[in-house]
Design brief:
Blueprint (H helix, E strand, L loop, with lengths): L2 H19 L1 H15 L1 H10 L1 H8 L5 H4 L3 E7 L2 E8 L1 H8 L10 H12 L3 E9 L6 E11 L3
Antiparallel strand pairs: 1-2, 2-4, 3-4
Helix pairs in contact: 1-2, 1-6, 2-7, 3-4
């Protein structure tokens, strides 16, 4: 089984939980995933602050590079602005002709925002949706800011 297979499984799991148990339970799952699976991000941000944010996502060994995401990121005045031009996960679902769970992309903010908030960093995402279907396109923007003390 490949990571691409897991993307399909995540998509269907998110849909199943939301449809069967409600969106609140899906939010609970994402909160648990954030606590359990985001330890690497937590350690980097605790040790390096905003530099740890960059290292986690955009450095040569970062998550987005490893996933071969098509993205751009700008770091200026202690703030990150990033654009995901082609999300590898959503693109995988599209290429496999999978029905994308409409809120699939929401898991990103649900996983990462709580971790960053622990260290006074805000994380806001804006997801692009196909106007005809309302489904994710795999393009989004993120704004990551160190909150004022």
């Amino acid at each position: 089984m490949s990571i691409q297979d897991f993307i399909v499984i995540y998509n269907e799991t998110f849909r199943y939980i939301a449809d069967t148990y409600g969106r609140a339970r899906l939010n609970d799952l994402w909160a648990a995933m954030s606590k359990e699976w985001c330890e690497h991000l937590r350690r980097l941000v605790k040790a390096k602050g905003m530099d740890g944010v960059y290292e986690y996502w955009a450095s040569p060994a970062g998550t987005l590079k490893r996933e071969k995401a098509d993205f751009s990121i700008k770091y200026e005045n202690g703030c990150y602005d990033s654009v995901m031009h082609r999300c590898p996960s959503v693109n995988e679902l599209i290429e496999r002709h999978q029905s994308i769970f409409p809120d699939y992309c929401e898991h990103c903010a649900s996983l990462y925002a709580p971790v960053l908030a622990e260290y006074g960093i805000s994380y806001r995402k804006e997801y692009e949706r196909d106007p005809a279907t309302g489904l994710p396109t795999g393009r989004c923007k993120a704004w990551i800011r160190k909150k004022a003390p």
